[in-house]
Amino acid sequence: MPNLRSSYDYEDLLACGRGEMFGPGEPKLPLPPMLMFDRITEITEGGGKYGRGLVRTELDIKPNLWFFQCHFQNDPVMPGCLGLDGLWQMVGFYLVWLGRDRNVRARALGLGDLKFTGQILPHARKISYTVDIKRVMRSKLVMAIADGTVSVDGDTIYHAKDLRLGLFKSLPGSPIEPTS
């Protein structure tokens, strides 16, 4: 297992997406354009609101980001599902960062509640994501449950409760199966 750090820059995230960070068989972050943050500013196993883990990330907003060009014509806004996906990406990174299992793939499993109270427009400067880990389970299915928020320029605009993400065995040519 590599030396775990408490923060990661953009080049580190790209290395994770290429499978170079945690080793062969480890889940990867998506590569751009689907990678929804530029850096992990803080990651810890014992921190956060529930004392079970915390991840904080940031995305610098640029008016030419791909989604502004197609969502919506003459009314550009970041799709809410991309902010939500960013939260799931963070939970998946956290599970892998903990050193859970090999030859698995991370998959979103759902969430309990989601509220949007704002939007992300091209003139914004920065998105800040926070994920507070509530629980990590290791049984037939390895799964984490977390709460998350998305803020734009300091104002929290998404509240997600009970984000669920699991790790599944990845066997070449077959469907994914829960880890054991």
Automatic annotation (TrEMBL):
It is an enzyme of class 4 (lyase). SUPFAM superfamilies: Thioesterase/thiol ester dehydrase-isomerase. InterPro entries: FabA, FabA_FabZ, HotDog_dom_sf. It is found in: Cytoplasm. Its main location: cytoplasm. Its EC number is 4.2.1.59. Pathway: Lipid metabolism; fatty acid biosynthesis. This is 3-hydroxyacyl-[acyl-carrier-protein] dehydratase FabA. The lineage of its organism: Bacteria, Pseudomonadati, Pseudomonadota, Alphaproteobacteria, Hyphomicrobiales.
